[in-house]
Amino acid sequence: MDKVQNNKAWFLVLPVLVLVAFSAVIPLMTVVNYAVQDTFGNNVFFWHGLGWFEDVLTDSRVHGALGRQLMFSGIILAIQIPLGIAIALCMPKRGFWASVCLVLMALPLLIPWNVVGTIWQILGRTDIGLLGYVLSGLGIEWNYARNAVHAWVIVVVMDVWHWTSLVALLAYAGLQSIPQAYYQAAKIDQASRWKVFRYIELPKMQGVLLIAVLLRFMDSFMIYTEPFVVTGGGPGSATSFLSIDLVKMALGQFDLGPAAAFSLMYFLVILLVSWVFYTVMTNLDKQEGK
Amino acid sequence: MAATTETYAATTRARALPRVQTRHVVMVAYLLFMLIPIYWLLKMSLQTNQEILGGFTLWPQQPTLDNYRVILTDASWYMGYVNSITYVVMNTILSLSVALPAAYAFSRYRFLGDKHLFFWLLTNRMAPPAVFALPFFQLYSSVGLFDTHIAVALAHTLFNVPLAVWILEGFMRGVPKEIDETAYIDGYSFPRFFVKIFMPLIASGIGVAAFFCFMFSWVELLLSRTLTAVNAQPIASIMTRTVSASGLDWGVLCAAGVLTIVPGALVIYFVRNYIAKGFALGRV
Q: What is the model's pTM?
């Protein structure tokens, strides 16, 4: 759609601008403020320059959290994207059962994140939880509160349970938009199932899959509540991801300077990914000829 | 000859049947994986604490609604739901009312800095709440809004306003521009046109945006917990405090969890075809 140039449209976006400026810009400026100052308490601050940034950049604790975070996001994407596509391909195309599948699959997406944590915390216990009970019944010494590997397993499985449906639903929406004629043409050409997937379905799903990858990356990159409830970042710091570490630093220890510097660098990563997301979106819109 | 046709038919059947079955098996297995944890929560919410700790069972031996009774009669529990719903509804109304005109502007006009603004909104949707927790706490404490519903509602606009703008813009661009022009020729003023003609046209979009604002505010814990203490404490926060205390009442905890799923489960059927669209910010 060709849009009209009209700068009066600013009046329509003004309320949003004011509100979001209040809830985003002011807090962000506070963070910037803390990031370059130091204090001896009593609200007396003095200039500290880039000292905190240097500290954070060389801090092994932050490095550890970043490493764990990247590993977590990587594992999540590697499991959820293929699994989501597979589920989308297995879903009924239309009718009553399609609705049933949609509703049941979307259920975990709408559960408050701390309840997701609670569910898996309980499920993983060997005395009252199904998963823990079955695993220890199989002779595994299952203890996610002590064993770092077990903690990782439960956090990853929890996230797969929580978010794979999102990937599946997006891929399903992509599949639904493929005209029936494409499949008929493939049938005439006697294309194999794999070839239909590779040359028709995958290219047509490309756009939504990019969205899915970016959304899953962003959300897993700032995951906080679910692992916090299940493992509290432990055992030790085995599952403290970036957000958990940051909240510990900012609200637990009140290390304002390092926490603020940490926040800003965290935010820069988010900014970068958002930019990629935005570019993908606008390119998609262009392709559709809108 | 007959034998070959028969084997041919047999092989096609053999080839056709397992494929259909794999699909169904995968789907059923996945749905079971989705539902078992929820079933487990539901099952434990129907048991007494003695029964839960007494022995491992796959279903409640003596189902009881006592846990729900505890929550619905104890003010320190049920006020959590009241608080949550209060700030969530406030946030949804606030987000939608500012997002509607803005989304219209983005979908219809080009103006100075429009693309930058649209991008900036997106970065706020993507911003990690952990970054904002401390500054929000200080900001709302300093203006005397700490532990009020409006503080949480305002804090959640951080990600809900951008979300609503993006979703609504996605729906609005589907409405042909000729409708606007015809309405203006017919002498409608902008506010009247917007409320009387345009909003009914994107009613489903408004519904979807409202649902997602509601949902994202409902599931968020970090900000709502940081910004409240007693008076506006959300149910999610009450639940985590119970977890950290010793002497857990598992049954009540599970019942509280089940009750938080109810609002989503009630409306999910109506939005089932829009879930992907909403999560993808109106772009699917």
A: 0.85
